[in-house]
Specification:
Shape: globular
Structural class: alpha+beta
CATH class of the largest domain: Alpha Beta
Number of domains: 2
Mean pLDDT: 97
Low-confidence stretches: none
Number of helices: 9
CATH architecture of the largest domain: Alpha-Beta Complex
Strand order of the largest sheet: 12-11-10-13
Helix content: 25-40%
Bound molecules: N,N,N-trimethyl-histidine, fe (iii) ion
């Protein structure tokens, strides 16, 4: 069965929609690479990241590969550079030593690709094969560029030096909310078979039966996390899994990444600004092991991926799964903190208009949320259009994150979207919320 989900209608003009999403992604890529000098574009700011100029040319290379070659059958423009920008041929640590295109050449290359793509967009088929159906390949490439834009923003966060980016602060929190909500036992539709630009790992829709559980209404705040730090959480092995403790020891973890103690207060570095850690913002830049230890300290656990998605999408009144927590409409500035409109998460309890049917807030935007789940294919998974997007990462090495962050563009974020990373990673915009089993009889 395909499952019971509300159906997304593609905007009437798919070509215009695709053009706008591609243009927004390119504007952001150019913003993120024009705000620093040549030197900062070619340097590697962290071994975890590529030089910014690699990301810039890589998005063009993928665009050429999937749109100009795969969709349109064109010949390679510059076959000699293909392998430089193949993420599987060269791990991030190696990329600075490759004979990469210069910033100027990279800009010229991606602009040339884009000019041809804009021409193609007017005449390409948008039905007749899965790759082109409802403009999928164009949507995939817009998402891909935005994913790299988020990665580039994480590189900016790692970069030493004065601030070069600015944005207004996000919305304040509103009203009151219960600490946690009960999600009663029962099946729901997980994943999607209808979302036109969903990626292979989100498919297909399938029924999952979920036992009753309680889940935090809002993400874990800096204040709550600081209480864990101050209770000696980083020095109590009983709160950590064996692997988590081994990593905590080896990496010398004592607080979230970018925090440090100054006099009697915790401060953090955020895009070059040093500021007191804001108590009511969701904690960010923690790894999965830190989230796991915090949850143990709080007498709770991380939600499974199915629990996260049920809290986000299931509407108990209709029995259907929504595209987003608030319904089926695309995210607006009222719903969620997405798309780098702000350079930080909003305080917990913001965006009541973005709450799910169960009243859970900030599931979309603000911070990516670690779940307890390994990254695996859903029943009936089929790799599409290439195994290296998802399938090669399936297994128990990676943990799933959900919901997107303030740095995630709406085109690459929805109730079904799945992100994944190693449980030790924390340069990403990662936070979490906690859950617990319901007691017998509760929500049965
Ligand atoms: C889905 C964020 C894990 O950045 O490694 C970009 C996205 N895949 N280019 C990543 C991706 C290919 C991917 N994540
Ligand atoms: Fe990529």
């Amino acid at each position: 069965m395909t499952g019971d989900e509300t159906r997304a209608d593609m905007p009437t003009d798919i070509r215009t929609h695709a053009y706008e999403r591609l243009t927004a992604a390119r504007d952001r890529s150019l913003l993120l690479t024009s705000c620093v000098g040549e030197d900062d574009l070619v340097r590697q700011h962290s071994v975890l990241m590529s030089p910014l100029v690699w990301d810039l040319a890589h998005v063009g290379s993928q665009e050429e590969l999937w749109l100009l070659r795969a969709v349109d059958g064109q010949e390679p423009m510059r076959p000699e550079i293909d392998s430089l920008y193949d993420a599987f041929e060269h791990p991030r640590a190696e990329r600075p030593s490759l004979p990469l295109l210069s910033p100027e050449e990279a800009r010229r290359y991606i602009a040339t690709v884009r000019d041809r793509v804009v021409g193609l967009l007017e005449r390409a088929p948008i039905e007749g094969s899965p790759l082109v159906e409802q403009g999928f390949a164009f949507g995939m490439i817009a998402q891909h560029e935005q994913q790299h834009d988020e990665t580039m923003l994480a590189t900016h966060q790692l970069r030493a030096g004065a601030p070069v980016l600015s944005a207004p602060p996000p919305a304040p929190s509103e009203g009151r909310w219960p600490r946690e909500v009960l999600v009663p036992a029962g099946p729901f539709t997980m994943g999607t078979s209808t979302e036109p630009w969903s990626l292979d790992n989100e498919r297909p829709a399938h029924q999952v039966d979920v036992a009753a559980y309680w889940i935090d209404t809002v993400p874990v705040s800096n204040a709550a996390y600081q209480a864990f730090v101050e209770a000696g959480g980083y020095d109590r092995p009983e709160l950590w899994s064996d692997r988590g403790w081994a990593h905590r020891q080896e990496a010398g973890l004592t607080a979230p990444r970018f925090w440090r103690r100054e006099g009697g207060t915790w401060v953090r570095r955020r895009f070059g600004h040093v500021e007191p850690v804001p108590a009511d913002e969701p904690v960010v830049h923690v790894c999965w092991y830190e989230a796991e230890a915090y949850a143990a300290w709080a007498g709770r656990r991380l939600p499974t991926e199915a629990e996260w998605e049920k809290a986000a999408r299931h509407d108990p009144r209709t029995g259907r799964s929504r595209r987003f927590p608030w319904g089926d409409e695309e995210p607006s500035a009222e719903h969620a903190n997405l798309g780098q409109r702000h350079l930080q998460a909003a305080p917990v309890g913001a965006y009541p208009a973005g709450a799910s049917a169960y009243g859970v807030r900030q599931l979309i935007g603000d911070v990516w949320e670690w779940t307890s789940s390994d990254f695996r294919g859903y029943p009936g998974f089929a790799a599409f259009p290439y195994r290296e997007y998802s399938e090669v990462f399936f297994g128990d090495e990676y943990k799933v994150l959900r919901g997107g962050s303030f740095a995630t563009d709406p085109v690459a974020c929805r109730g079904t979207f799945r992100n994944w990373d190693y449980p030790i990673r924390r340069q990403i915009f990662s936070g979490f919320r906690t859950a617990r089993d319901a007691a017998p009889g509760e929500g049965a």
